[in-house]
């Protein structure tokens, strides 16, 4: 487990793909329990350790997860997440040939573009479906994206969520013909060897719920050849 930030009220960790944030029907040990054990050992805390889960990431997704270490922080963070006061930035690798990047499928480098759909969640399939028009039980989904870099076959996108819907990034990017690499559920042609999908919760920024200081945390890129190759810092100048 990698801790990116911690203080008396919150702790931010870098989740590995394959880990679950909170316990589920699989019975696998969740990240929340691992974090509790870390706090208990580091601070020699007797008895049960308090840890509040304020948001989750899908199991195959990696990156930053924020936990509350006190009930005060939990209450305030829950409100902040609900009101959109926690700003999360994701990076995603999508299949996109260079000729497509330079056309309208994934709009040109550097500029922000908006996707708006109506999402309907299918509970049995654990999958969401996107529509251009409102449908029964649909929720409006809005995100912004821009291209950071690209190779011959893939593009690295930066994504900001304006709404928080089930599988929103995965579903909306797939709807425009650019499924996330490794995401078989949403149309990727093949899986990643480790079972992950190439979606990273890259950055989180918010005003601390107690100290009122601005907190900015960033996750490192996965130790993967493609991620490293698409890192904007490694791209040659054009």
Could you characterize what this model shows?
The protein is an alpha+beta fold and 238 residues long. Helices cover 18% and strands 33% of the residues. The chain is built from five helices and eleven strands, in the order ββαββαβαββββαββα. Strands 1, 2, 3, 4, 5, 6, 7, 8, 9, 10 and 11 form an eleven-stranded mixed beta sheet that branches. A hairpin with an 8-residue loop joins β3 and β4 (62-68). The radius of gyration is 18 Å and the shape is globular.
- From the N-terminal CA to the C-terminal CA, the straight-line distance is 38 Å
What profile does the largest beta sheet have? Answer: 11 strands, mixed
Poorly predicted runs are 99-104
Task: Please tell me what the overall shape is.
Answer: globular
Number of helices: 5
Number of strands: 11
Q: How big is the Rg? A: 18 Å
Subunit organisation of the chains: single chain
Level of helix content?
A: 10-25%
Q: How confident overall, as mean pLDDT?
A: 92
In N-to-C order, the SSE pattern is: EEHEEHEHEEEEHEEH
Category by helix and strand content: alpha+beta
Please report which band the strand proportion falls in: under 5%, 5-15%, 15-25%, 25-35%, 35-45% or over 45%. 25-35%
């Amino acid at each position: 487990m990698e801790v990116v930030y911690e203080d008396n009220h919150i702790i931010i960790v870098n989740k590995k793909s394959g880990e679950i944030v909170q316990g589920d029907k699989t019975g696998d040990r969740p990240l929340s329990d691992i974090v509790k054990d870390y706090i208990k050992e580091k601070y020699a805390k007797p008895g049960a350790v308090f840890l509040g889960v304020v948001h989750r990431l899908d199991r195959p997704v990696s990156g930053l997860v924020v936990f509350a270490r006190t009930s005060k922080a939990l209450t305030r963070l829950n409100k902040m997440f609900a009101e959109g006061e926690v700003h999360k930035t994701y990076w995603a690798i999508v299949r996109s040939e260079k000729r497509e990047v330079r056309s309208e499928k994934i709009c040109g480098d550097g500029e922000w573009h908006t996707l708006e759909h109506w999402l309907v969640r299918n509970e049995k399939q654990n999958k969401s479906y996107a529509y251009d028009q409102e449908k029964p039980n649909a929720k409006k989904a809005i995100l912004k994206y821009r291209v950071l870099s690209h190779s011959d076959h893939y593009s690295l996108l930066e994504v900001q969520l304006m709404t928080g819907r089930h599988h929103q990034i995965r579903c909306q990017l797939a709807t425009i013909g650019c499924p996330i690499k490794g995401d078989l559920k949403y149309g990727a042609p093949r899986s990643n060897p480790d079972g992950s999908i190439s979606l990273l919760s890259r950055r989180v920024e918010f005003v601390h719920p107690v100290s009122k200081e601005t907190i900015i945390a960033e996750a490192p890129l996965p130790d993967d050849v493609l991620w490293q190759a698409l890192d904007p810092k490694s791209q040659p100048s054009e």
